[in-house]
From TrEMBL:
Pfam hit, one: DUF1249
Listed InterPro entries: DUF1249
Protein's name according to its UniProt entry: DUF1249 domain-containing protein
Length: 170
């Protein structure tokens, strides 16, 4: 019996942080397969597949090692006028990671976890956001969104000014 206990004690456990890093890697692969955003010029892009939910992909900034993006439907929250749902993403090219830095689904992160949350709450919030992102990217792929359906939008981002949107949501 003691040898049985010793064997089970050697099984490594995955921490929440390690799980989060795994989500970042999976989401990087999903987004890269869908839209190849590292090669897109800054500006707005729309993907239309005929289901009535046009997808908006805004490339806010392109840097050597990162790309800043916003992914949303062409829908607006009736109360705020903001695109909703909306996910702000940071794509790390060298590390092959995609992080949802914040999501706007009716509320800001400060309203969800408070101004000075403990680290465990921050990791939990990031796990939820990036799990949502992974499921959303899978759904988009199933609906037929991808590089072939992506077209540049005249006038830039969904609201016309990505810098304003990013500053307002931070």
């Amino acid at each position: 019996m003691p040898s049985l206990i010793a064997q089970t004690a050697r099984i490594p456990r995955l921490s929440r942080f390690a799980w989060l890093m795994g989500l970042y890697a999976e989401n990087h692969a999903r987004l890269s397969r869908l839209f190849a955003p590292a090669g897109l010029a800054p500006g707005g892009y729309r993907s239309v597949v005929g289901d009535g939910l046009d997808l908006q992909l805004d490339v806010l900034e392109q840097h050597r090692y990162t790309t800043e993006l916003r992914l949303t439907y062409a829908l607006r929250d009736p109360l705020t006028g903001e695109p909703d749902p909306s996910a702000y993403l940071r794509l790390y090219h060298d590390a092959r990671q995609l992080e949802a830095t914040h999501c706007y689904v009716g509320r800001r992160w400060q309203d969800v976890i408070g101004m000075y949350p403990p680290p465990a709450r921050v990791v939990g919030h990031r796990l939820r956001m990036n799990t949502f992102l992974g499921k959303w990217l899978e759904y988009l792929a199933e609906r037929g969104h991808g590089v072939a359906t992506l077209r540049p939008v005249d006038g830039g981002t969904a609201s016309g000014d990505g810098t304003k949107d990013l500053a307002a949501s931070a």
